[in-house]
Design a protein that fits this description.
- The chain is α+β, with helices and mostly antiparallel strands.
- Helix content is 25%, strand content 28%.
- The chain has two helices and seven strands; from the N terminus they run ββαββαβββ.
- The protein has a three-stranded antiparallel sheet with strand order 5-6-7, with helices on one face. Strands 1-2 form a two-stranded antiparallel ribbon.
- A hairpin with a 6-residue loop joins β1 (5-6) and β2 (13-14).
- The protein is elongated.
- The two termini are 17 Å apart.
Length: 116
């Protein structure tokens, strides 16, 4: 399955050609991308447009594991109360290069999903 183009500079997958909503929606139909809730409903997120981004399928799977296996149990145990997932975009791409996840109060948890 084709998930993007390889960058000559870094050798990693480059998603810069997904530079419009229409291209991303077409990639979703081809199962190259999927829509991801930055803050999942399990952690209090909404289904509003500003909470959704386009990502490769492996990113959605990895983020879901982080949210449900690591963050959610810590929240239920009262170790975390605040959560944010911040996408970092490069150029005009609608697919982020990375997603920074921070959860805190009173404990802390942080990780970054590097997409490229």
């Amino acid at each position: 399955m084709h998930d993007g183009r390889r960058s000559r500079k870094t050798g990693c997958t480059d998603f810069c050609h997904f530079d419009t909503q229409k291209k991303c929606e077409a990639a979703v139909l081809r199962r190259e991308l999927t829509l991801l809730h930055l803050i999942p409903e399990e952690l209090g997120g909404s289904s509003q447009t500003q909470n959704k981004i386009f990502v490769p399928l492996w990113v959605a799977e990895q983020k879901r594991r982080i949210d449900l296996v690591t963050v959610l149990p810590m929240m239920r145990a009262g170790k975390l109360h605040r959560y944010e997932a911040i996408p970092v975009f490069r150029g005009s791409s609608f697919v982020p290069a990375e997603i920074a996840i921070h959860a805190q109060d009173p404990a802390g948890f942080a990780t970054t999903i590097d997409i490229c």
